[in-house]
Amino acid sequence: MNPPLSSLKLLESATLISQGAEAASISKVYRGSLSSEGVPVLLKYRFQKQYRHPKLDTSLTKSRVAGEARALLKCLRHGVNVPGIRMVDAPAGLLGIDWIDGITVKYLVPQGLDKQADETIDQLAEAKTLDQFGITIDALMNLIGVEIAKMHLADIIHGDLTTSNMILRSPQSTADKKNTELVVLIDFGLSYHSSLVEDKAVDLFVLERAFASTHPDFEPLFASVLAAYAKMLKKDWAPVQRRLDDVRLRGRKRSMVG
Q1: For every one of its 258 residues, what pLDDT tens digit does the chain have, with 9 covering 90 and above?
Q2: How far apart are CA 255 and CA 191, in angstroms?
Q3: Is residue 176 annotated as part of the catalytic site, yes or no?
Q4: Residue in 89, 160, 187, 203 annotated catalytic
Q5: Is residue 110 part of a domain?
Q6: Could you say which EC number(s) this protein's record lists (predicted)?
Q7: Residue that is last in its domain, among 45, 73, 98
C-alpha cells in the first residue's frame, strides 16, 4: 500500500534520520501544516513489507500506528512526558509527533565496553553532559522512575523500555519548565494497554536487563529507578515488586537452561 499524496509530500520534504528494528524510517520536517510555527516534527513511517501479504500488511500497519497514537494520547492525558501528536495517517503507516530537543539517556549514563561506535553520537554526548543539564545521575534515575510509574498508573505498557527510548531535554528547551519535565519517554511502537501486574513487572525487567547489558554500574542505578517508581505507586508497588522478583527468577532459569 502506498501512502496518499499528502503523506508522500511530507516524506519528500523530510530528512531520513534512522531506520529501526521495526522497519520504521524516522524523518524530521520543519515546515508545512504540521509545523507552521517553525517547530520541528518527527515523522515515523511504517513502510510496506514485501514479505507479508498486502492485506495482512495493511491491517498490521494500520493497527500498530493507531495503537501507538492511542498509547501516546493516554499518556498525555495522564501527565506522562511523551511527545505530542501532530498527525496520524494510520492506513499510510505515518505518525507525526513533536521533535524532542535533547539527547538519549543511553549516551549520558556510563556505558560498558559494548558502547556503540558512533562518532556523531559520541561527540554529542561529550557536548552535553549531566552537569550542563543541572542534575545529578541520581536525579536522572529518579526522573526516569517517576515517568515509568506515571505510565504504568495509566495502564500503558511500553514494551521496549531501554535508555535508548528516553530523552533528556536540552536545558534551552526546558527554561520555563519544571525539572520533572526533563525526561521524555519515546518510541511506543510496541506499547499496549494492560492493568496486569505481570505486564508491568515484565516492563521493568526489560529495563533492568537493558541497564545490565549497557551500563556497567547498573545495580545502584536501577535501584534508584525502582525507588522513585515505588514512591509513585505507593500501595500498588508491593504486588509489582513480588511479580518482578518472580520474573527475575524465571529469567535466571531460562539463562541457566540456555
Answers
A1: 344 445 656 777 677 777 765 556 677 765 555 555 566 788 888 877 777 788 888 888 899 999 999 999 999 999 999 999 988 999 888 899 998 888 899 988 877 544 444 544 454 444 457 877 888 899 999 999 999 999 999 999 999 999 999 999 877 665 555 545 689 999 999 999 999 999 999 999 999 999 998 887 888 999 999 999 999 999 999 999 999 999 999 876 555 444
A2: 25
A3: no
A4: 160
A5: yes
A6: 2.7.11.1
A7: 98
